[in-house]
Specification:
Strand order of the largest sheet: 2-1-3-12-11-4-5-10-8-9
Number of domains: 2
Mean pLDDT: 97
Order of helices and strands: EHEHHEHEHEEEHEHEHEHEEHHEEH
CATH topology of the largest domain: Isopropylmalate Dehydrogenase
Number of helices: 12
Number of strands: 14
Structural class: alpha/beta
CATH superfamily of the largest domain: Isopropylmalate Dehydrogenase
Bound molecules: nicotinamide-adenine-dinucleotide, 3-isopropylmalic acid, manganese (II) ion
CATH class of the largest domain: Alpha Beta
Largest sheet: 10 strands, mixed
Length: 360
């Protein structure tokens, strides 16, 4: 396969973690005989500093002309006082919307070697295997009217039947090929938007008779998620609930730095870790690159349809974790690494698994 991949490193630890993921994709290309042309572009604070715009036209054009987009993270204290349109985060939100990415997949699995990495008891987190499906291009993030003054501010939470249907379908379809369980998270006891959400999800349920559907209120689900996470399989949420709950779920996995995501629904997918620019550790070779490397695996699977290649990356990550390697955020990792040396180990794993596969 000969494709262009847009790489948007962004801010803070973004460039450090994307460098490791790109190197892993390079090892995949070499091992499997593909040609990936990586093309970098500016986004976020880096783009604001260089051009005044957190999503320059050239970046959007590159993304549209690529087979997939790999992104690090955006934001940081340097831009926190900028007006909304010149904040790094608004560049990312515009990119998601411009590419039509309405579904954000955030898998959360607990690796057996990391059962002690969570502050929760091992018997609670053991065996957790969740797939969050977060609505990504609607809700409070984009709702109008919105306004701000120092005395009063407004945000709006709109959803249409069409917007709920398309993301809910994706969640049902994922549940059907996983463990056939779907929990839809809402606040239907208070919010009209959530009442519609629940109605639309219920209307779809008969189309997927093999999937057991359950509804949960977001407040009690936030508790259930960290007290009995094994009870759940696919979790469907609106935009803001999914943002919050997926960071909470990172506690199950052992670190925010481990979790990847895939944003789908348009013609080009966007793949990024769920964490932010981590300004507190940026530039120190301390960030965990695994969330971004696993995002690169999702890029291979969902963006390019390369399943064996995705699996090679995931097994290299699993092997490295199994052997007790990790960055400082992983409690109890027996072998301490920086961003670069952990990335290099994973890359080696990809190379040797390809070599073994070729011998058979
Ligand atoms: P954050 O996710 O950047 O960091 C939260 C905590 O997790 C920090 O202690 C950080 O050191 C740690 N952490 C995050 N990623 C890590 C990694 N790979 N390895 C090890 N530790 C890691 O959240 P925040 O501090 O609330 O936000 C910082 C900036 O990032 C803000 O400007 C925010 O808007 C932005 N942000 C961007 C994205 C994105 O680009 N998708 C996501 C979340 C936050
Ligand atoms: C995420 C981030 C973003 C979001 C911010 C930076 C706009 O928190 O990707 O989870 O809220 O979607
Ligand atoms: Mn978030």
């Amino acid at each position: 396969m000969d494709v262009r991949i847009a790489v948007l490193p962004g801010d803070g630890v973004g460039p450090e973690v994307t460098a490791e993921a790109v190197a892993c994709l390079g090892a995949v290309a070499e091992g499997f005989g593909h040609r990936f042309e990586f093309q970098e572009a500016l986004i976020g604070g880096a783009a604001v500093d260089a051009t005044g715009d957190p999503l320059p036209e050239a970046t959007l054009a590159l993304c549209r002309a690529s087979a997939a987009v790999l992104l690090g993270a955006v934001g940081g204290p340097a831009w926190d006082r900028h007006p909304r349109n010149q904040r790094p985060e608004s560049g990312l939100l515009r990119l998601r919307q411009a590419l039509g990415l309405y579904a954000n997949l955030r898998p959360v699995a607990v690796h057996p070697a990391l059962e002690d990495a969570s502050p929760l008891k091992p018997e609670i987190v053991r065996g957790t295997d969740l797939m969050f499906v977060r609505e990504l291009s609607g809700g409070l993030y984009f709702g109008e009217p919105r306004s701000y003054s120092d005395e009063a501010a407004v945000n709006t939470l709109p959803y249409t039947r069409m917007e709920i249907t398309r993301v809910a379908k994706m969640a049902f379809e994922l549940a059907a090929v996983r463990r056939q369980r779907l929990v839809s998270v809402d606040k239907a006891n208070v919010l009209e938007t959530s009442r519609l959400w629940r109605k639309v999800v219920d209307d779809l349920a008969p189309t997927y008779p093999q999937v057991t559907l359950q509804h949960a209120y977001v407040d009690s689900f936030a508790m259930a998620l960290i007290t009995r996470p094994r009870d759940f399989d696919v979790v469907l949420t609106e935009n803001l609930f999914g943002d919050i709950l997926s960071d909470e779920a990172a506690v199950l996995a052992g670190s925010l730095g481990l979790l990847p995501s895939a944003s789908l629904g348009g013609s080009v997918g966007l793949f990024e870790p769920i964490h932010g620019s981590a300004p507190d550790i940026a530039g120190q070779d301390r960030a965990n690159p695994i969330g971004t490397i696993l995002s690169a695996a999702m890029l291979l699977r969902h963006g390019l349809g390369l399943e064996a290649e995705a699996a090679a990356v995931e097994s290299a990550v699993n092997a490295v974790l199994h052997a007790g390697h990790g960055t400082g955020d992983l409690q109890g990792a027996r072998h301490a690494h920086g961003t670069r040396s952990l990335g290099a180990l994973i890359r080696e794993g990809i190379r040797s698994s390809v070599a073994v596969a070729l011998r058979h």
